[in-house]
Amino acid sequence: MTALDHQATLPAALADRLTDEQRVALLEAPREKRLETLAAALGRPEPEVLEHLATAAGLDVASNLETDPDSRGLLPARLVHEYQIIPIKFGAAGTSATPFAGTPEQLRTVPMHIAAAWLPDHAMADWLRTFTPRPLVWHLAVPERVHQLIIENFGVGSGSLDDSDESYIAPEAQQKEEEIVDEDAAVVRFVTDVISQAITDQATDIHFEPQEGQLRIRYRVDGLLVPVPVPENLLRFQDAIISRLKIMARLNISEKRLPQDGRINFKANGVVLDIRVSTVPTIYAESISLRLLNQKKEAYTMDRLGMSAEEQAQIVNILDYPHGIILVTGPTGSGKSTSLNAFLRKINSTDLRIITIEDPIEYEIPGVNQMQVRPEIGLTFADALRHVLRQDPDVIMVGEIRDKDTAEIAIRASLTGHLVFSTLHTNDAPGAITRLVDMGIEPFLVASAIELVIAQRLVRRLCQECTRPQPVNKVKVRENLAILGVDSAEAELIESLKSPVGCDRCRGTGYRGRVGIFEIFRLNDEMHELVLKRESTRTLADCARKHGMRTLGQSGWEKIKTGLTTFDEVLRVVTVTDS
């Protein structure tokens, strides 16, 4: 019996450890999610389960995958996407092989090595034999890496737009007895694929950008814009894709001269997204931006935000106050709303009435009254806040203080016995004080109301699977520490720091996820006097540092020393003026 004969079903050694419900869930999961599903059912880490699965099926696990360009063109995109497989280079010792230079007849005898995200079966093998006579050698591989290579080589959604071979009809199309896939259906599936892939990549934004001779698609992942590989024939579908997005957002598809805003309620694979859509006309076609808001996503705790025990203690102490204002500052995308959400969850209890005013509502918090502002009908932050004060709240969260009106009402609320959370756009924590004064708020009101200001940034977190310590260049470390406002003498105490490497788990980037760095500013008597004198942000910052405030640069250095991130990441988000 060949290895493939064992692979039509899950090997008995593993199947016997699952319940009937778990087996059904495993078979119903997409191929790229089956390893994750099996690992969860067995309660074991995915790398360990992958090894067990391969051993039980008589296969090996391929790592450091590299696509075989000679074989890639033989397989249609729809088949590759459906089965989550990719032809790979594979030498005698598991290293990349050199391109084959023989005759076509000789090539027919050269094995095609296929990396699969899940166990291959006879149907899969039969389909591949339709497109190549070469012998097939199967390998299991990390599903994320297989999927990434498919995207890199064929493009996101290429399985939906693939018209290179009409003889292959995906299994789901067969089940629906669809013999001909029309263009409209292909575009619908393509848009769904693009959004679904963005969810998988944990992107916060998707940008469809018409350029000369191409439709560029980019995701914002971990705060950085990432070009998305797209199918070669995408330009042909550009107008249909733009129209599809506008229809989903209930926009006027005939209006192409004016910007429009809308929203999409997107549901797929158990994920519910509130997507904010913005269109603007450009010289080639309309550019469309999508902001992805997953209302059901897992909430962050203060630990998961990346706060140290000392930082948490400082904040929790103020969270227990019955009144005052706690501000979180930083640029767009620095995690301010996520931090406020974590604070609210920390204090949420049945004896507190908590009301939030948000735009948009990014997280649902059980037991909290959450309100969405609607400026188009006159419900602004300031108007909503006036009404909320009549609702007998104990705690109020205002999504953002954008103007003097909102600031005055928030401060008045804090001075009349309410704990108020909000955000501001400033470079550092002391800058929030001068920003409020510049808005026209009297300094004595600011000094009386503000209890705590937290400035924050998000930096990419090193992948813990592949990061390795590297010896440091102490001259370079001293230069970097000087930029971050840290005592350069600390460089003498450091012999090595962790660096990004790149592996199948982090898709070769060396980073997975993000972690916060924080600057916590609390006014004391001396700083109260400086506020009343309308002193500058720099003067307030100098005084705060003198009294022990740790700056963003210093917080970033702590994350670097503990192996969570790198100098490059911290320097990317912390400017010289922050120090």
Task: Label this structure with key terms.
alpha/beta; 6-stranded antiparallel beta sheet; 19 strands; single chain; 7-stranded mixed beta sheet
Distance between the termini: 68 Å
- Which percent band covers the strand fraction? 15-25%
Instruction: Let me know the largest β-sheet.
Output: 7 strands, mixed
**Can you give the mean pLDDT?**
85
Radius of gyration: 28 Å
Question: Helix segment count?
Answer: 25
Instruction: Name the poorly predicted regions.
Output: 1-8, 92-98, 164-170, 172-181
Largest sheet, spatial ordering of strands: 13-12-14-15-11-16-19
Structural class estimated from helices and strands: alpha/beta
Please report the total strand number as a whole number: 19
